[in-house]
Structure formats: structure tokens, C-alpha cells
Amino acid sequence: MILANITGNTKIAGVIGDPISHSMSPSLHNGWLKKMKIDGVYKAQQVSADKLKEFFSQMKNDGWAGCNITIPHKEAALEFIDEIEETADEIGAVNTVVNQDGKLLGFNTDAYGFWQNLKNGVSDIENYKEKAVVVGAGGAARAVVYALKKAGVKEVVIVARNPDKAEELLDIDENMAIEHMDNLEEELENTSMLINTTPLGMKGKGSFDWPLDSLAKDALVTDIVYNPIETALLKKAARQENKTIDGLGMLIYQAMPGFEAWFGQRPDADITALKKEMIATWNL
Ligand code: NAP
Q1: Collapsed DSSP state (helix, strand, coil) of residue 22
Q2: Residues with CB under 6 A from ligand 1
Q3: For residue 7, which of 105, 118, 176, 205 sits 20 to 30 Å off, Cα-Cα?
Q4: Cis bond upstream, residue 19 (ω within 30)
Q5: In ligand 1, which atom is closest to the CA atom of 254?
Q6: pLDDT by residue (tens digit) across 225-236?
Q7: CA-to-CA distance for 266 and 207, rounded, in angstroms?
Q8: 202 and 227 in contact (C-beta within 8 Å)?
């Protein structure tokens, strides 16, 4: 038995991953449920790769309204979902599942979350669409480059420590360049937006001296890492007067569509207040 028994009218959703104890999603969703007085619960469930199939088939029968999927199952889950919507299909990863009367629908809301966070952070996002440099080429980078391309950013360069591996991202859009991490400083010369999608800067992941000397003062810098809220990259960019946007808003925005689908109401959208609360609760 992987899923909990369901009793009464309580709607159940959750997040699955392996490991899962680090996830902030339960606190975020349960906070919304409490605030909005919805009879629901959002759980964190550790599911190993060999139990994914079992989890999803049980989910259909056990009445979960749906779930979020996090590392390392976002790609593998595609195989067990009945219907994949277009964005998830193009990104090649599912982070939100909705159980529609026993049929599992798979969505990707990371790209939406990333772009909404930028739009919330600057009023003139149109001014940053000349050239984006995306550092990292993992799962999150896939959603980020998809969002940039959909938004019409003219030039997208992926900078990675392993350029051969990064080429996999070209299946999203072949019209992107790939550069080695050693060329980052050079790439930043005429960049309008710099995005970190690697864990560099995350608590416990070691430090990195970002080579920002060539970055223009009017470039936008964002980090999808949100723990700490002000990463070394954002600190350095702010010191040289670049506009910066932290990654916590992305986490909040990507959570909203799932919550609405499972619990029937759009969550409270006071991002500033919510962020303040989360930073204090999680000591970010
Ligand atoms: P992932 O699939 O493991 O990808 C990580 C990427 O970073 C890979 O390209 C990896 O390169 C690269 N990388 C790792 N360590 C590096 C280093 N020391 N130097 C240079 N490159 C390095 O992870 P992910 O799912 O994309 O997540 C990445 C980060 O984004 C995590 O910190 C995660 O918490 C955060 N995230 C935030 C949100 C949000 O809502 N704000 C959403 C998703 C993810 P290799 O391929 O060569 O290993």
C-alpha cells in the first residue's frame, strides 16, 4: 500500500520524489488549504523509481486528486501518465498530475512558474528579450529555455560544464547555442538576461565565483535556486547594480495551477506576503 486511505470528503494531493523530505511544497499547499478553509490535505510521499508504476496505478483507484512530481521522476513519469498536455510533451517532463476520474493528465507548470516570476519581478520584461544566457542544462533548464523561447527571446545560449549533454536540450528548439562553462564571461558581454539553473549557490552545494565583470548594468539576473533566497550570484549582481529576481516566486507560481485543479480554487496570490512568510518559516 503506497497511498494513504481516503475517508470522507477530504481531497488529497501530494508531491512524490526520492528523496522528498526537503520539499517545501507541503508547507506551501497546506498553508493555502488552511488559509482558504478547504477540506483537503497535501502530503509528501517518497516513491522510488521502481515503485513509480505502482504509485500511479494506485493513484487512479485511491482517489488522490493529483500530485506534483519532483526530482528524479519528472521525465520517467511520462510513461505512466494517460494524457500528456503539449507543454509537458515539448519540455519532456511532467511536474503536475491531475486525476480526472481515473485518467491521469500530465502537465508541466515549471515554465509558466519561471516566466510569471520574471513578469512579477520587473514591469518591463519586454526590454530583456535580446539575449538570454542559461547556465546549466538539467531538468529545470529544459523548462526555462522552453519558457524563454515561447516568450520570444531572440537569442538563447546554454552554458554548461558538459556541452555534449546539453545538446539534448536542442530537441526543445534547435535554434539555441551551446557553450562551455569556461566561456561564460565572454558570453555575458552582450546579454540582457542571465539565469542560473544549476544548484551552484544552493546551501551546502559549495561556492562559485560568478564572472560578472563583462555583464552590462542593465542586464537582468535571476537564480532559480531559492535556498538561500539571496544566492551568491544574486548578491554579486546586486552589488554591481543589476536588477535581480530570486527563485522563490517560481516555486510559488508553478504550484498554483495544480492547486486549482485539485482543490477547485485559485490560491491566494499575494506573492510578496507569502514569500516573506516562507523566508521566515524556512529560514531561507
Ligand atoms: P538537474 O536536473 O540535476 O540539473 C542540474 C544542472 O546543473 C545540470 O546541467 C548539471 O550539470 C549542472 N550542474 C550541477 N552542478 C554543477 C556545477 N558544480 N557546475 C556547473 N554545472 C553544474 O537539477 P534540476 O532539476 O535542473 O534543478 C537545478 C536546481 O534548480 C536545483 O537547485 C533545484 O532546487 C532548482 N529548482 C528550482 C525550482 C524553482 O521552482 N525555483 C524548480 C526546479 C528546480 P551535469 O549535467 O553536467 O551534471
Answers
A1: coil
A2: 71, 110, 113, 136-141, 160-162, 165, 181, 197-200, 202, 224-226, 247, 250-251, 254
A3: 105
A4: yes
A5: 40
A6: 999 999 999 999
A7: 38
A8: yes
pLDDT digits (tens, 9 = 90+) for 62-107: 789 999 999 999 999 999 999 999 999 999 999 999 999 999 999 9
Q: At 187, which helix (H) or strand (E)?
A: helix 184-187
Q: List pLDDT tens digits, range 158-214.
A: 999 999 999 999 999 999 999 999 999 999 999 999 999 999 999 988 789 999 999
pLDDT (tens digit, 9 = 90+) per residue, 243-259?
A: 999 999 999 999 999 99
DSSP string of 115-152? HHHHHHH-TTGGGG-SEEEEE--SHHHHHHHHHHHHTT
Nearest ligand 1 atom to alpha carbon 142? 26
* pLDDT higher than 90, residue 1: no
From residue 91, how far is each of 95, 107, 180, 221 by CA, in Å?
11, 10, 22, 23
Q: State the cell numbers at 105.
A: 493528465
Q: What is residue 40's three-state secondary structure?
A: strand
Query: Has 74 been annotated as catalytic?
Result: yes
